[in-house]
Amino acid sequence: MEKRDCILIVDDEPEIRRLLVDYLTRNNFEAVAARDGREMWQALERHAIDLVVLDLMLPDTDGLTLCRELRAKSNLPVLMLTALGEETDRIVGIEMGADDYLVKPFNPRELLARIKSILRRTRALPPNLRPESARCLCFAGWCLDTAERLLTAPDGVATPLSGGEYRLLHILLDHPNRVLSRDRLTEMIHGREAEAYDRAIDVQVSRLRQRLRDDSREPKLIKTVRGEGYVLAASVQRQASCI
Amino acid sequence: MHLSWRGLPSSLFVRMALILLLGLLVAQGLSFWLQWGERATVVSQARGQNFADRMAEAVRALEAIAPAERSAALATLPYGDWQVTLITEDQVSQNPPRGAIGAMLSARLGSAREIRPLGGAAGMGMMHGNMPRGFDVRLQGGQWLRFSGARELAPPALPRDLILRLAVTLMIVTAVAMLAVRQATQPLKQLAQAADTLGRDLDAPALAEAGPTETRRAAQAFNRMQARIKRLVNERSRALAAVSHDLRTPLTRLRLRAELVDDEKLRDQMAADLDAMAAMIDTTLDYLRGLQTSEAVRPIDINALLASMSEDALVLGRPISIQGQALAPYTGRLLALRRALQNLVDNAVKYGACAHLRIEDDANELRIMVEDEGPGIEPGELARVTEPYYRPDASRSSATGGVGLGLSIAKDIALLHGGNLVLANRAQGGLCATLKLPRVAGAAP
Question: Does B331 touch chain A (CB under 8 A)?
């Protein structure tokens, strides 16, 4: 049997801690709980944690500060939980380095799916190549705000992206000037093996080209490498904000 | 005093300007009339002196010669415009003597002479400068002499430069009056503008508390009111956030506990109930937060917005068709617009089984139609379904969930953009919700 991923749950509500540990254990994870920042650091020393589920509101240090401290020390992925549904909280959470964000009450299955997706994404690359987190990825005059999940064109027009388009662009921007195969892209986006003759990725690339006003017959930004896959032909700057 | 305002223009500026000008004209006319009278008096007095001189001269000359030679001497006297004749006792004017002319004549001759003004002008005072047409004077010895004017003596015409001066004064005063009225009405206009902005943006900058006392006080009162409204709204939001936070924690526990239930059907039902409760909290908060959105206004690629929504819906197994295209980016609030459209699409899918998006665009207005193929809405209910918490058919919505806020939120967002949400039943069945978004001139990038 393969080694189970270990999840650390940081929440000040004892019942939620217990229920979450229970739920994750039943779903093939190992789970450890901590009630505040102090316990979190202890748990991190004692166990080999793969991902932290962090509540935004904690009694001693708040979740945002913890998240930032955690980011400063390690590449450990963080999923934020909050009982405040404000859009601005989500943005702040992502800015502080959280990989994802869920609002309470969440569907436990959604939590599972997100945990799996984050682990998959962070493992797609060896740790030394894992991109450092930055809110904005700028390329060829365009700018992708990963907190607001918003793409801004060189002329300042906000260009909304679908979930699929966003994930694809994010992956391409994480690997500029590197050829990514269809299989690899499909796996990173959908978490499944590409099926034979799977055209989903090609459809998504062509939609994304359209969003980026890239001519599909002679693309300049997302180029097709015949027989291999796709490559983003631009240098990417990581910035704190889109200018 | 009751003044009828009917017939007057509605603008306060014009009204005040008209009233002021009317007052000024009357005042100017009155002062002109008084000046005219004064001037005439002075002129007639000068003429009286002159006349007295002439009369005294003639009387002295005629009294110095014998009565028989007088009629011959008359011709040699220089009278200018005056006629001098000898008259008999019965021709003498019967008017009683009056005015200063008698005294003036006596002063010049050294002794009194009987003097009678000529008729016609009897009732007329000196006020208008018209002297009597002439006088009958009794010489020493009883002979009467008549001096009569060759023509009616009018006061001299007004000199041209006086009229010019009056016109210039009037013009200056008019300009100053307009300026004063503008000064008075300008703050009102600003106040109205500020009140308008406040409706859309609670965080609008405070009014400048400057200018005359009244203006300053109005601005201060307005700013205080704005601060009060802001505080109220913020307090309400905070209270709501606290309540929703406290509700979310037990809901999370329940949601996790529901996963422990072995009966799959029961578990799904519990999950659905909990989802509905969470959605209620979310939409209620959304609605109450709705119009105080501090989201920045920016140009948005509407085509990309609709395409992304359609693709996201496809993942959930809800195909959405899109017809037409926006011709240019629309300047607005992205999250708000997305929420409005999402609500309309959700509604269409919920009640009408599908959603067709249609875009109509021109230089003035962007219209996004969300159409479904459901039963539509009773014509009588069309206007009411956008009211918050209103649901046309309680039984139907309890089956489909929802709080009755989706359309209210969409409408509020349309209003926030200066537009509107119009609902109509389609001829071929189903509902058409039109999001009308005006393109503000100059707002385009």
Answer: no
